[in-house]
Automatic annotation (TrEMBL):
<dbReference type="GO" id="GO:0005654">
    <property type="term" value="C:nucleoplasm"/>
</dbReference>
<dbReference type="InterPro" id="IPR016024">
    <property type="entry name" value="ARM-type_fold"/>
</dbReference>
<protein>
    <recommendedName>
        <fullName>Protein SAAL1</fullName>
    </recommendedName>
</protein>
<keyword id="KW-0539">Nucleus</keyword>
<comment type="similarity">
    <text>Belongs to the SAAL1 family.</text>
</comment>
<dbReference type="GO" id="GO:1901647">
    <property type="term" value="P:positive regulation of synoviocyte proliferation"/>
</dbReference>
<dbReference type="InterPro" id="IPR052464">
    <property type="entry name" value="Synovial_Prolif_Regulator"/>
</dbReference>
Length: 345
């Protein structure tokens, strides 16, 4: 981690200059990778200048060039070229040493594009050091970096060949729970909240043990390793209030995001511990039910909705079944106000 990654081999210049079947230049890509190494190289530091005070922003030319690489990395030939010439190692050095949020965001974004291709995703996922460094990015204070990190994780979790690698890695990294809860409970960035919600939804769907661990994490302090990027003095998060806070943030601007968080709540209700976490909040569940009542009344259905419309919203139907068990009075009141919500018994 302390040494600079080795520069790519100059063999790229000895062959045809086109990357695969594309019109992109190997020589140009090679030059960008080399410049990235120079960005984090100690030789860049001027005498008497604190390394932490330099390179906090990209110059316009470098940003434009690296953004071009970001766009190009959606092409499989380019992604394979970047993989062959050590781009992930270069990016890991950037994550460790760069103080430039924009550069970190772009490099995570490039990795996210590369991970869309199965073989590259497998290589990235099996790299334990890179995996841990990427999880640490969830503690970053920069929202664009958090968004790209979440996108990368969702891409990997969506590939069956590597999903378990990431589930186990996250399960063994308790600090991820704190970072995710911090985002859900404090962020106002709807796009980020939706993507983080999709990651949580995927994790809970893939692994019940991890879901149970996260439900129980609210009853004791997490003991994961701290990082310099971790939010300071994190409170003792409980998963349900964090999910509800995120749902409140996305409800108006992203119906799809609201559905993601409702589905997370539905997944929680598939285990007894999840139901208890919902109904046994410190306030007796008052805030939970108030929010759910409001969501159902104003976001998920209207007074004049025919039953068939509500039946198509499986998330509403499933959650109402749990609501009837947890709070029969509230469920009955909802059904009286919204006849179409009648839950079969």
């Amino acid at each position: 981690m302390d040494r600079n990654p080795s520069p790519p081999s100059s063999e790229a210049e000895e062959e045809g200059d086109a990357v695969g079947s594309t019109v992109y230049s190997k020589h140009w890509l090679f030059s960008i990778l080399t410049r990235l190494i120079e960005v984090i190289s100690p030789e860049k530091s001027e005498p008497g200048v604190n390394p932490e005070e330099i390179q906090t922003e990209l110059d316009e030319e470098m940003e434009n060039d690296i953004c071009k690489v970001w766009d190009m990395s959606m092409d499989e030939d380019v992604a394979l070229f970047l993989q062959e010439f050590n781009a992930p190692d270069i990016f890991m050095g950037i994550f460790a040493k760069s103080k430039c949020p924009r550069l970190t965001e772009i490099c995570v974004g490039i990795l996210g594009n590369m991970a869309c291709f199965q073989d590259i995703c497998m290589s990235i996922s099996k790299d334990e050091n890179l995996g841990q460094v990427l999880l640490q990015r969830l503690c970053d204070s920069d929202s664009p970096t958090l968004l790209e990190t979440s996108r990368l994780l969702l891409t990997c979790l969506s590939q069956p060949e590597v999903a378990n690698i990431w589930v186990e890695r996250i399960r063994d990294s308790p600090s991820v729970y704190d970072c995710v809860c911090f985002i859900m409970s404090s962020s106002t960035n709807v796009e980020l909240l939706v993507k983080v919600g999709e990651v949580v939804d995927k994790l809970f769907d893939l692994d019940e043990e991890l879901m149970l661990n996260w439900i129980k994490s609210g009853t004791c302090q997490s003991v994961g390793p701290s990082t310099d990027d971790s939010p300071e003095e994190l409170p003792d998060f409980k998963i349900v209030p964090c999910i509800l806070e995120a749902a409140k943030q996305v409800r108006s601007d992203s119906p799809e995001g609201l559905d993601v968080y409702m589905h997370i709540l539905q997944l929680l209700t598939t285990v007894d511990e999840g139901i208890q976490a919902i109904v046994q909040a410190p306030d007796g569940g008052k805030e939970t039910w108030t929010l759910l009542y409001d969501l159902i009344c104003h976001e998920l259905c209207q007074l004049d909705d025919p039953p068939i419309i509500v039946q198509e919203q499986k998330t509403v139907e499933s959650f109402l079944e749990v609501l009837r068990e947890a709070d029969p009075t509230l469920a009955e009141n909802l059904e009286k106000r919204f006849p179409s919500l009648k839950v079969p018994t």
